Amino acid sequence: MRGFLASAVGVSCAAALALPLTLPTTTAAAAPTTPTQESIPGSTQSLPLAPLTADRSAGGGAARQQGLPQRDVRPFSLVGVVWNDPSVALHGQVQVRTRATGTTTWSAWQDVETHNDDAPDPGTAEAAGRTLRGATAPLWVGDSDGVEVRVQAGGAPHASDRGDTTAEPLPEGLRLELVDPGDEPGAQGAPADAPRTGALSAETAAASAVNAELAPLGATEIPALTKQQTEDALISARGGDTEGAQARPYIGPRPRIVTRKGWGADETLRESQFLYTKSVKAAFVHHSASGNNYRCSQAPSVIRSIYRYHVKSSGWRDIGYNFLVDKCGTIYEGRAGGVTKAVMGAHTLGFNTNTMGIAVLGSFGSSNPPATAVKAISQLTAWKLGLYGANPKGSTYLTSGGGNLYSKGKNVRLKVISGHRDGFATECPGRRLYNQLGTARTTSAQLQGR
Length: 450
Hints:
By secondary structure, the protein is an alpha+beta fold.
C-alpha cells in the first residue's frame, strides 16, 4: 500500500515520533515523481581471481591459492572478495595490498575478515529474484588506484584439533570487488543540512517519506528530542493523553539520526519495496570489520561503500544493517523503510525477523571501541527498543531462521541487546566491543527510566 506525499511535511515535537498502528508486511510509501538531477557517482570494479600457483586441490578443483598480482585500477576506497554460493564458507586467509592514489606507496599486507554471516535469512523475500553471493567483510583502505590480492585455502574451523591438516577447497567464482563510494553529500549544490525537495528522485523521496512524521521530506537528519518530548510523542501515537495521569512509557530520548539522504545513499541501487516484520524484540550489535583507518568525516563514504558492496557485490536488497554508528558516536539510518518501523534487515543470519542490526564502523577484536560509540548504542537502543516496549536489560525469545548455532524453527532465549556472536558462531562484534555490551545495556535501561 503506497501512500502519496505531495510536499515536505513539517511536524511538531509532539507528533514527531508517531508509530504506525499496524505494520505493513510488504511495502511502504511511494514518492512524488519529481524530475531529478541528483547523483552521487560511485562504481564497483569486479575482477576475477586466478590461480597464483600451478598447484590444484585434489579432484581438479580450484587452486589452493588464488589472487591478482599488482595492477593499476580505477580509483576505489573499499575492497572485498565474493564468490558464487552464499552457503559455502571461505576457509582460509584473504589479504590485500593497495597503493595510495597518485603515489608509488604500497601498503603492507592487510587481512580481510572472511566471515560470511552478515546475511539474509534462508527462504525469505531477500533472495526473491536476486542472485546472492558469498562475501568477505569489506575493508576500507582509503583512496587507492592500485591493488594486489592473495587468497590462501585453509582448514575448516577446529580441523587441526582433530588432527586434520587438509585444506578446504576455495569457493568457486572468487572475484575481487573494488568500490568507489562517489562524492560526498552536499558537494553538488544545496547545503548538507538543508532539506532538498526540488530535485528528489522518486526512489529518494520514497526513502524519505517513511520518516515524514519525524523530519521534512529530503531532510539530511532527524533531530534529537528531549525525553519529555519523546514520551509525549509515544503516548500520542498510542492514542493516550499526554496531560493525563497515566504512567509514562519506558523510552529514552530520541537521538539525532543522519538520514540516508544525509549520508548520500544512491536509492536507485536498492530494491524499491520495503520489507517489514511484526516488531523489534531485540537488537544485535555488530562491528563492520572494515577497519579503523577512517576519519569521522569519511563515515558517509564508508557507509556508501558498504551499501554498494552489500547490494551490487553480495546481491542483497539494500544495506544489511538497520543502523550504523561511527567512531565519533554519530548514528546513521541504515536499511530503508523508516527509522521507527520494524524493518527487516540482513545482519544476523537466522535472526533477522523481529530484530534490528546496529553496526559500529570499525574492527574491535583487538582494539577498544570508542566510548562515544558505546554511548550511541545505548542511546539508540533506549529509544528504538522503547518504541516496542522492550527492556534493554531483559531477555526475549526469538525463532531461528536457521544458522550454525541454532536450527531452523528453534525457539531461542537471547538478551534484548545481544552481540552478533550470540545468534551465530562468529567473532563479530569483536571481543572488545562485545565486552562493552553490559555497559550498553545498563545505560540504555537507565535512559529509558528503568
